[in-house]
């Protein structure tokens, strides 16, 4: 039984319940054919690869991944408090104390990712979800990348208003690339926006890269005179155009006077009370959108078994030389290469008793900018249909 369904840019999300424990999760399911046609298979696989290797109290953690003939499924922590973007759109006025908790929690999340050699590349209010107590959790690793041993990322990837200047500079000049500092810039932009209601720079997806570089070199950020001077000082350290002078990591954040009174062990244990607690009596997303999705979803999960049986019967009657033969080859590769995962048992071993399966789960803004550079895929995808260029 799908309790709630929400359409995303890639796939849908619904609330599910694990039969044996009755624990609730969020389940994202992505249609394989659509992923192939939209050249998103590599991004999905990379996100799965990253999520299977990480776990943190302030991340939305992956618990299971599985597949059937039609879809790929990712079962993750269920966060019912809504994302910060939704609450901003609802005109919530966040206090400095409330935002300070988010800042500390995201600092621990980003420091952990950095220790795992991961650049998230899409820190923004949309990707920070609140639990029912009001604590913040980072989600959406669709365009994240891993860099090790002094490597640098070079792809133009992210959401423009939150992307650090060096990402655009690297794209324009073909320079040395960028590293973990870009996530801390995005955190600064996000904290500024959640506090003030608008971003420090007036940037939109339509802005050219050239105009943005000009903007960063000529426009100064205007901070609110009502903010504590130590908060402004910290934001300046996060919104420093030169990445070499930008705060990047827990150790540097701990030197900020604004955070001098923070007990970081308490933060990790979620002991500080959030200044904003989502209303438990309401749905923290657009209910009109939810209802439309539930009505208009053309391939509902509860009809999947009948639909797959019908598709198999139809496919068996087709001529083997059908015009979709190449697509079918790609879908077969996806089927073979998909990574089964069960956090309770480990990946690909005990958890994967078959090529696909269900771990007892019942179906219960601004656009991203990505322009990755060419890279040889480690997986033998079917040419340009199944594989997208690497995005490091």
From TrEMBL:
Record keyword Cell membrane present: no
Xref: InterPro entries: Kinase-like_dom_sf, Prot_kinase_dom, Ser/Thr_kinase_AS
Region (Disordered): 302-324, 341-392
Annotated PROSITE patterns: PROTEIN_KINASE_DOM, PROTEIN_KINASE_ST
Compositional bias of kind Basic and acidic residues: 312-321
Pfam families: Pkinase (PF00069)
Family annotation (Gene3D superfamilies): Phosphorylase Kinase, domain 1, Transferase(Phosphotransferase) domain 1
GO annotation, biological process: G protein-coupled receptor signaling pathway; regulation of signal transduction
Record domain Protein kinase: where: 1-259
Amino acid composition bias (Acidic residues), ranges on this chain: 350-374
GO molecular function terms noted in the UniProt entry: ATP binding; G protein-coupled receptor binding; G protein-coupled receptor kinase activity
Keyword Nucleotide-binding appears in the UniProt entry: yes
CDD domains found in the cross-reference section: STKc_Yank1 (cd05578)
Protein name: Serine/threonine-protein kinase 32C
């Amino acid at each position: 039984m799908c309790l709630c369904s929400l359409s995303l840019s890639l796939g849908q999300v619904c609330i599910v319940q694990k039969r044996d424990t009755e624990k609730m999760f969020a389940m994202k399911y992505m249609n394989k054919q659509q992923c192939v046609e939209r050249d998103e298979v590599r991004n999905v696989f990379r996100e799965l690869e990253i999520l299977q290797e990480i776990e943190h109290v302030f991340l939305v953690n992956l618990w299971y991944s599985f597949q059937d003939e039609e879809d790929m499924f990712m079962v993750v922590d269920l966060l019912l408090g809504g994302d910060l973007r939704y609450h901003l759109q609802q005109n919530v006025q966040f206090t400095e104390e409330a935002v300070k908790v988010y800042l500390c929690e995201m600092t621990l999340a980003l420091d952990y990712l950095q220790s795992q050699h991961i650049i998230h590349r899409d820190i923004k209010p949309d990707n920070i979800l609140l639990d029912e107590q009001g604590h913040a959790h980072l989600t959406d690793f669709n365009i994240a990348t891993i860099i090790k041993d002094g490597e640098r990322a070079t792809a133009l990837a992210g959401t423009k208003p939150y992307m650090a200047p060096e990402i655009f500079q690297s794209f324009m000049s073909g320079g040395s690339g960028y590293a973990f500092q870009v996530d801390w810039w995005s955190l600064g932009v996000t904290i500024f926006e959640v506090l003030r209601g608008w971003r420090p720079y007036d940037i939109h997806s339509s802005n050219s890269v050239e105009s943005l570089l000009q903007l960063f070199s000529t426009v100064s950020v205007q901070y609110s005179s009502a903010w504590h001077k130590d908060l402004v000082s910290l934001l300046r350290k996060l919104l420093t155009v030169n990445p070499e002078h930008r705060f990047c990591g827990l150790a540097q954040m701990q030197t900020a006077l604004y955070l001098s009174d923070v007990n970081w062990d308490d933060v990790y244990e979620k002991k500080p009370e959030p200044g904003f607690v989502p209303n438990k009596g309401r749905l923290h997303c657009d209910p009109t959108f939810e209802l439309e999705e539930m009505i208009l979803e053309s391939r509902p999960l509860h009809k999947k078994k009948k639909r797959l049986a019908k598709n198999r019967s139809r496919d068996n009657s087709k001529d083997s030389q059908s015009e979709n033969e190449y697509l079918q080859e790609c879908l077969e590769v996806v089927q073979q290469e998909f990574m089964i995962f069960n956090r309770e048992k480990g990946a690909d071993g005990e958890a994967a008793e078959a090529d696909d399966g269900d771990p007892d789960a019942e179906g219960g803004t601004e656009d991203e900018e990505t322009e990755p550079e060419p890279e040889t895929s480690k997986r033998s995808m079917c040419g340009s249909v199944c594989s997208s260029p690497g995005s490091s």
